[in-house]
């Protein structure tokens, strides 16, 4: 029997994709928002495609706000953008 592939919905484009193809944005218990590269940290997670356009779409359609049920400051998006850059250059 085939193993079930965990699918997650992108908060930017809304597409369902394999969990391993996406990046996890994490809200920790103290309210910090960061990228969870390992996918194993504790906290509330939201998934986003690895394309930069999806981060822009999530920003525009307030995908993170809906996922985390809180307002997201602009600095958080800037930090995520920087973390995206770091991952792309690796």
Walk me through what this model shows.
This protein is of the alpha+beta class. It contains three helices and five strands. The strands form two sheets. It has a three-stranded antiparallel β-sheet with strand order 4-3-5. A two-stranded antiparallel ribbon has the order 1-2. It is globular. The N and C termini lie far apart (36 Å).
- Uncertain stretches: none
- Give the beta-strand count: 5
Quaternary state of this entry equals single chain
Strand content: 15-25%
Mean pLDDT: 88
Backbone structural class:
alpha+beta
How much helicity do the residues have? 25-40%
Tally of contiguous helical segments: 3
The profile of the biggest β sheet is: 3 strands, antiparallel
Whole-number radius of gyration? 13 Å
N- and C-termini, Cα separation: 36 Å
Order of helices and strands: EEEEEHHH
**Shape, per Cα inertia axes:** globular
Strand order of the largest sheet: 4-3-5
């Amino acid at each position: 029997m085939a193993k079930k592939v965990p699918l997650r919905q992108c908060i930017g484009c809304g597409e369902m994709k394999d969990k391993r193809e996406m990046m996890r944005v994490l809200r920790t218990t103290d309210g910090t928002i960061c990228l969870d590269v390992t996918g194993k940290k504790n906290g509330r997670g939201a998934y986003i495609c690895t394309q930069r356009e999806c981060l822009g779409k999530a920003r525009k359609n307030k995908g993170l706000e809906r996922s985390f049920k809180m307002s997201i400051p602009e600095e958080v998006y800037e930090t995520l953008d920087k973390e995206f850059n770091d991952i792309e250059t690796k």
